[in-house]
Amino acid sequence: MKISLDARHHRLTVLAAVLVAVTAAVASHPAWAQSNLFGGPRPLASNGIAGWVLAKQAMFYQELAGMIRAARDNGSALWGLMGISFVYGIFHAAGPGHGKAVISSYLFANEETWRRGIALSLASAVMQSSTAIAIVGVAALLLGATAKLMSDTVNLVETASYVLIVLIGARLMWVKGHGLIGALHELKAEHAIDAGPGGNAHDAECGHDHGPGRMACEERDATMADQAVLYQCHGDHGHHEELDVLPWGHAHGPEPEQLAGPGGWRRGLCAVVAVGLRPCSGAIIVLVFALAQGLFWAGIAATFVMGLGTAITVGAVATLAVGAKGLAKRIAQKPIGRGGVIMRGLELAAAGGVLAFGILLLTGYMASERMGLF
Amino acid sequence: MTPARFAVPAWIRLTILAAAFAAVSTEQAQAHPHVWATIKTELIYAPDGSVTAVRHAWTFDEMFSAFATIGIKAKTKGQFTRDELQPLAKVNVDSLKGFAYFTFATADDAKEKNPFDDAVDYWLEYDPKATVLTLHFTLPFKNPVKAKVLKIQVYDPEFFIDFAFAKKSPVTLVGAPKLCAAWTEKPDDPHFLSAQSLNKSFVASEAFVGMGAQFANNILVQCP
Questions:
Q1: Which residues of chain A have pLDDT under 50?
Q2: Cβ atoms B54, B182 nearer than 8 A
């Protein structure tokens, strides 16, 4: 009786999760969001959330030009400029090229807290602003470079950033692939132990000094409904040294207490650099325009404020990713024994997402941003 | 205390993986333009009534104009002559070539592949009052087009440039046979979205290639 109830509960939650994920994916995709399935006539560009965001960000962008010009003659217009920059940043980050996909996939693949998600978003936004300022500052102000040269520089930096995304994806896939294989082995081992003549199955599981086995171990402990035991059990494992060498990725993600440690922040650094290396084209154009108006410093301030707005949008998406991971984890804990496999599978899929994303960007199948005619 | 266990059907597991993958890899993606261009276009006709070339004049927004002219030396500050801007005009048409000049032609319902030769007669004009650049260039048809209905579309498939028709006389027919009529369709016209752009294969992409087609500006010319 209990078994069938559990089973039904599990099936329902899985189905619900699938529905939610599919709906989210469909709703978020402009192809579906924008086209009318029945082919009827429908005005675009001004319709729907996507159209609204698009219209708003275009409006704010063009207002920026006016504000910068006004600030040249009237210092009090600077406040308006900062306000517009902030709001523009929020809307603007809804578009591609601000690291939403990379950061949220990274967060999903690793076990991260929402705080870290927001910190990563903020760090990458600040770095993105700084790169834009550095490029315009050095190229235009010091070297007297032309727009073409500046665009070429941006392209070069962009390529480096895409290579980094590919590397992060490959690295995550390697780690998560090991995790999945480990979880599958554990599942098998568990079967074997259960079939065997009793013995202390728990100790056998937890005795491993090998990360990926943790899920199976966790579930056994979770049936005792004791979180403390769960973490302690994990703590006993010791880490898989070989997999922890590089600053990003982690054999099985940090536990909350590890995040406070000095090494915790380093792990996200690569994701931050990959995203932040690539400057935002909008910021570059705004900076050059400010420079042409003789107000470069106002452009710098506006760029940082814009980055703050960007961080809010990216941070919101990152928080969603962390929440989704938490939900998936809770659901996966229900089916005893399989949860580990499902979770590692999901993480592997997220890692694959980062890799695919990087490859598409690098090969030019996916365009991130372009500065018009250069 | 044997834990309860049952088999999760394979299709459910696969669906979860696929859905999770889709959820993380397709974000709320929406390319956004950084460049706005106002279009004025002339269609050049031969005496036999065929269209031989498309002549464009695109005026860019103030911010992009400032960006494009950075680092260009001008004799008089704030005023660029045609000669001073000529190297930039060359850079522009050269890179436009890689984007098929954002100009697409359909003759009697058949979309032409690579209909144009390289751009000729190109130059940039700077308006010191509005501080904006206008790029002039002519696209000769490889084979002059004789069609009952000729459609010229101008759009950036990746939608980083937002094209819009000029409010005043966006299209002019030069030397066209009598009874030829031209009109324009803009994205916000209610009948705008054509079956063609709907059928375009959708690619899961950050910039969503093909999306720009929905923001295309259509020129339609009908001749008897």
A1: 1-5, 12-13, 15-46, 198-263
A2: no
Examine residue B3 and state whether it is found in any structural domain, yes or no.
Answer: no
Distance from CA of B75 to the nearest CA of A (A): 16
Print the domain residue range for B65.
30-222
Size of interface A-B (CB pairs under 8 A): 257
For residue B207, give the nearest of A28, A36, A96 by CB distance. Answer: A96
Into how many domains does chain A fold? 1
> Running along chain B, 224 residues long, what does each successive block of 10 average in pLDDT?
50 53 44 84 93 96 92 88 94 92 89 90 94 96 91 86 88 88 70 35 32 70 86
Q: Does residue B90 lie within any of the structural domains?
A: yes
How does strand B161-165 pair with strand B35-45?
parallel
Task: Summarize pLDDT for B108-150 with one digit per residue, the tens.
Answer: 878 888 899 999 999 999 999 999 999 999 999 999 998 889 9
Containing structural domain, residue A66 = 49-363
**Domain annotation covers residue A333:** yes
* CA-based nearest residue to A229, from A240, A243, A219: A219
Q: Could you tell me if residue A145 is inside a domain? A: yes
In a domain, A15, yes or no: no
Non-local CB neighbours of B207 within 8 Å, separated by 6+ positions: A96, A366, A367, A368, A369, B29, B31, B158, B159, B160
Residues present in chain A in total: 374
The chain B residue lying nearest A22, using CA atoms, is: B19
* CB-based contact B36 A41, cutoff 8 Å: no
Contact A366 B206 (CB under 8 A): yes
Q: Which residues contact B58 (CB under 8 A, 6 or more apart)?
A: B37, B38, B39, B40, B134, B135, B163
Which of A10, A54, A317 is closest, CB to CB, to B32?
A54
CA distance B201 to A204: 53
With respect to residue B5, please indicate whether it lies within any of the assigned structural domains: no
Distance, in angstroms, between A36 CA and closest chain B CA? 8
3-state secondary structure of A25: helix
pTM: 0.69
Question: Scanning every residue of chain A, which has its alpha carbon at the shortest distance from the alpha carbon of B194?
Answer: A41
As a whole-number percent, the residues of chain B with pLDDT over 70 amount to 73
Q: What's chain A's Rg over C-alpha atoms?
A: 24
Distance CA A361, CA A364 (A): 5
Q: Is residue A29 part of a domain?
A: no
Residues of A in contact with B15 (CB under 8 A): 18, 22
**CA–CA separation, B143 and B145 (whole Å):** 6
- Is B12 part of any domain? no
Please give the C-alpha separations between residue A303 and each of A83, A140, B166, in angstroms, as whole numbers.
12, 16, 31
Number of structural domains (chain B) is 1
Torsion over CA: A335, A341, A347, A350 (sign): negative
Name the DSSP class of A139: I
Whether B8 sits inside 8 A of A342 (CB atoms) is yes
* Alpha-carbon gap, residue B69 to A308, rounded angstroms: 29
